[in-house]
Design brief:
14 strands, alpha/beta, 25 helices, eight-stranded parallel barrel, elongated, three-stranded antiparallel β-sheet, 680 residues
C-alpha cells in the first residue's frame, strides 16, 4: 500500500509539472505573462508551438542521418567534415558564440592557481584563437582580479581588450544601485561587457538572499538598467535557472522578464549544479527562447553528472546562441563544460553555424596544451579531439593503414590541430619524407645568417619531429617557444652560442635553524658559483654593437674598449673564461644572479632581464622521488616589455632550472635587436 501511495503521489507531481510546462509552452494567460516584455511571445504562441513541434519531430531525421556516415565508413569512403555533419536542429539564422570563462570559473578548479600574468597570457591567446567573449574575473572580489583589469587595458591588444568581460552580481538588497560599491567596481573596470549573476530559484531568494521575491526581481531590473544606461553590454547569468524552473516555473520566468524589461542583451541559463539531463534542458531552453523571441539566449553548464558538453549542445538545439565553457573543462567540483569538445562537435558533427569553424579549429589542440602549460597542469592524453592518444596509429583493420581508415577515425586529426600518435623510433626521426614544416618568415629571416634556406628547412624538419616525439611523452613545448627557437638554431652548424657553461655548483644552507623564532623556520640561503666560456669572435661582435649604442658615454665606451683589447689577447679557439659567485634566497635565484653578474659586463642588455614566473611540473608521478620534473621559466625585458618562456626537464631539478635559465639568456641575446626594433 505504501508503494502504491508513493506511486500515486509521484504521478500527481508529474501531472502537475506537465500541466505547468504545457501552460508555459501554450502561452495561456498566467499572471507572469501579463508582463509587457512577454506579450509578443504570448501573441505568437502558434509560432513557438510550431517551432517546438519541428524540433520534436526532427529526432527521427537525426537518427537516419547518423546512420549514413557509418555505412560510408564501412565502405572505406574518406571521412571529411562534410560527411560528419548532422542535423543542427536549432532555429534558422542562429550563430553560436563562444564565451570563455576559464579565467574565472576555470580558475576555481582543483589544483588551479593562475597569477595575473598567467591570466593576461591566456586572455591574449584566447583572443588570438577567436573567442568571442573572455570572462576575466570579478573586479570587486579579490586583489588579483582587480589587478588584471588595471593592467589588461594597457597590456592586451585592443582586439583582446574588447572581448574582456567583467563578472559581478546584481545590487545588494534594499539599497540603491548607485550606492552599491561592487556594481561601481564593474563600471570602473572599463570592460565593454559585464555579466551579472542573479537568483532565479525561489529557494535561494528565500533562504540565501533572505529577501522578498519582488525585491530580487527589482535587484535584477535595477542593476541591468543602470549598466545598460552606461552603454555596457549586459548578460544575466540566471543562477540555478533550470532548478528554479523545475521548482517554480512562473517565478523563474518572472526573474528573466525583469532583466528583459531593463533591456538586457543576453539571458544566460545556468545549470549551476550540473543536475539536468540533455532532453529536459533542451526543452526548457526552447520554452525560454519562445517566450523571449527578441532576446538572445545563452547557456552555462557544470559537469557534476558528466553531462556538461551534452547539455550545452542540447541548449543550442533549444535556441541558445551562446555557450559558456572553459578550456579543458577546468572548473569547481567536477568542472565546467569543456569547450575543447563543444566547439568541434558543434561545427563538424552538428554542422551548426558557429563563430568557431574551420580553419580556426586547427588551433584547438595548441590552445588546449598552452592553457595546461600556463596552469601548470598535465595534459589529459585521452581527452577527446585534443588528447595525445586521440588518434593512435594501429593495424586493427585489413590494409593496416589507419591514416586512411575511415572506420577507425571520424576525421583527420589536422582538423583540430592534432596528429596521429605512434611510438617514435630512430627511423621516424631520420625519415625525410615526412610532411614539410612551416616556419614563419620572421624566424626564417633570423636564421638566415647561419645557413641557406634549404639547409634551414631540412634541419628544422628534423627538430620539429623531435619536438613532436617529445610531446607524445608529455614534454610539451606549447608555452616555451624560446626553447624551440634555440633548438632550431643549435641544429645549424654555423650557429655559435654567445656563451657556454663549463661547470657550476650550488651550496644551500638554513640560517638560525635551531633558534626559537615563534615556530617560523628561517628562509634558506644559497650560494652559486658558475664558470663559463665566452667565444672570442662572438664576444667581439657583441662588444662592437654595444660600443655603437653607447654614443657619447665615453667612460663606458673606454671600459668596453679596454675589455675588448684584453680579450683579444686570448686564443680565439678557447675563448674567454669567466668565474663568478652570487648569493640568493634559493638555488635558482642564486644561479640566475650569478649568470647575469658574469655576463652583464660583456652584454649590458642582460641588465634588463627579469624572471617573472617559475613553474615546476612532475612528468611521471608514479616514479615518486625518482620522477622527472619539467621546469618552465618566463622572462621579461623590462626595457621593451617583451616576454619569452623556456622549458627543460631533467631528473635533477637544479639541472633543469639551470638549462632553462641559460636558454632564456641566450634567447634574449639572439633576439635583443628584434625586441628594440619592435619597441621603436
Amino acid at each position: 500500500m505504501a508503494r502504491d501511495s508513493n506511486c500515486t503521489t509521484r504521478s500527481k507531481r508529474m501531472s502537475m509539472l506537465l500541466m505547468l510546462l504545457s501552460t508555459l509552452s501554450l502561452g495561456s494567460s498566467t499572471a507572469f505573462l501579463q508582463s509587457p516584455c512577454l506579450r509578443s511571445a504570448h501573441a505568437e504562441k502558434s509560432v513557438g508551438g510550431g517551432r517546438a513541434a519541428v524540433h520534436t519531430g526532427g529526432h527521427g531525421a537525426l537518427r537516419r542521418k547518423l546512420v549514413c556516415p557509418l555505412r560510408m565508413a564501412t565502405a572505406r569512403a574518406p571521412v571529411t567534415a562534410a560527411t560528419l555533419a548532422g542535423d543542427f536542429g536549432g532555429p534558422e539564422g542562429l550563430v553560436v558564440r563562444y564565451y570563455d570563462t576559464t579565467l574565472r570559473d576555470g580558475a576555481q578548479g582543483e589544483g588551479i592557481s593562475l597569477s595575473c600574468d598567467d591570466k593576461l597570457r591566456i586572455a591574449a591567446r584566447l583572443s588570438k584563437f577567436g573567442a568571442d567573449y573572455i570572462e576575466a574575473g570579478w573586479p570587486g572580489s579579490n586583489p588579483k582580479d582587480a589587478e588584471f583589469f588595471q593592467r589588461a587595458h594597457g597590456e592586451l591588444s585592443p582586439e583582446a581588450w574588447g572581448k574582456v568581460v567583467a563578472f559581478g552580481s546584481t545590487r545588494y538588497k534594499n539599497i540603491k544601485v548607485e550606492d552599491d560599491k561592487q556594481v561601481q567596481m564593474l563600471v570602473d573596470s572599463n570592460a565593454r561587457v559585464v555579466t551579472l549573476v542573479g537568483k532565479s530559484w525561489d529557494l535561494h531568494v528565500d533562504e540565501v538572499l533572505e529577501t522578498t521575491r519582488e525585491e530580487n526581481k527589482d535587484m535584477i531590473r535595477d542593476t541591468v538598467r543602470y549598466l545598460r544606461a552606461k552603454g555596457i553590454e549586459v548578460m544575466l547569468d540566471a543562477e540555478h535557472f533550470y532548478d528554479g524552473y523545475r521548482a517554480n516555473p512562473a517565478y523563474a520566468i518572472e526573474c528573466l522578464a525583469a532583466a528583459v524589461e531593463a533591456n538586457v542583451d543576453w539571458l544566460v541559463l545556468c545549470d549551476t549544479n550540473g543536475g539536468s539531463l540533455p532532453w529536459e534542458l533542451e526543452e526548457m531552453t526552447r520554452k525560454v527562447a519562445t517566450l523571449f523571441p527578441g532576446t538572445k539566449i545563452g547557456v552555462h553548464c557544470h559537469n557534476d553528472q558528466g553531462m556538461a558538453v551534452a547539455n550545452s549542445l542540447s541548449a543550442v538545439r533549444g535556441g541558445a546562441s551562446l555557450i559558456q565553457g572553459t578550456v579543458n573543462g577546468y572548473g569547481e567540483r567536477t568542472g565546467n563544460a569543456n569547450v575543447m569538445s563543444i566547439l568541434p562537435t558543434l561545427a563538424l558533427s552538428m554542422n551548426a553555424p558557429s563563430s568557431i569553424r574551420e580553419p580556426t579549429l586547427a588551433g584547438l589542440t595548441s590552445l588546449s596544451r598552452y592553457v595546461d602549460e600556463q596552469a601548470n597542469q598535465p595534459s589529459n592524453q585521452v581527452q577527446a579531439y585534443v588528447g595525445g592518444a586521440a588518434w593512435p596509429v594501429t593495424n586493427c583493420f585489413p590494409g593496416g593503414n589507419a591514416k586512411h581508415d575511415a572506420v577507425e577515425y571520424r576525421m583527420p586529426p589536422e582538423t583540430v590541430g592534432n596528429a596521429y600518435f605512434m611510438a617514435p623510433t630512430s627511423s621516424d626521426l631520420a625519415d625525410d619524407d615526412d610532411s614539410s614544416i612551416e616556419i614563419s618568415k620572421e624566424t626564417l629571416r633570423s636564421l638566415s645568417m647561419y645557413g641557406e634556406e634549404e639547409d634551414i628547412l631540412v634541419n628544422a624538419t628534423r627538430v620539429m619531429r623531435i619536438v613532436r616525439s617529445l610531446s607524445q611523452k608529455g614534454y610539451f613545448f606549447e608555452g616555451a617557444d624560446a626553447s624551440v627557437d634555440l633548438m632550431l638554431r643549435r641544429a645549424l652548424s654555423a650557429y655559435k652560442a654567445p656563451f657556454e657553461i663549463i661547470d657550476y655548483n650550488v651550496l644551500v644552507w638554513d640560517e638560525g635553524l635551531g633558534e626559537d623564532k615563534g615556530g617560523v623556520r628561517q628562509a634558506s640561503q644559497a650560494r652559486a658559483t658558475v664558470k663559463l666560456r665566452v667565444d672570442q669572435q662572438v664576444v667581439n661582435r657583441y662588444v662592437v654593437k654595444e660600443l655603437r649604442k653607447l654614443g657619447d658615454l665615453a667612460s663606458d665606451a673606454a671600459n668596453l674598449a679596454s675589455l675588448a683589447a684584453s680579450m683579444a689577447s686570448n686564443s680565439p679557439l678557447s675563448g674567454t673564461e669567466l668565474l663568478e659567485v652570487a648569493e640568493g634566497n634559493g638555488p635558482v635565484n642564486a644561479l640566475g644572479k650569478c649568470l647575469v653578474k658574469a655576463l652583464v659586463p660583456l652584454f649590458p642588455s642582460l641588465e634588463f632581464v627579469e624572471l617573472s614566473d617559475y613553474k615546476v611540473r612532475i612528468l611521471d608521478n608514479e616514479a615518486a622521488t625518482g620522477a622527472v620534473p619539467r621546469v618552465m621559466i618566463e622572462f621579461i625585458d623590462s626595457q621593451t616589455g617583451r616576454r619569452w618562456t623556456t622549458a627543460s626537464a631533467d631528473s635533477n631539478i637544479i639541472t633543469a632550472s639551470m638549462n632553462a635559465l641559460v636558454d632564456g639568456l641566450e634567447y634574449m641575446l639572439e633576439h635583443r635587436n628584434t625586441f628594440v626594433e619592435r619597441e621603436n
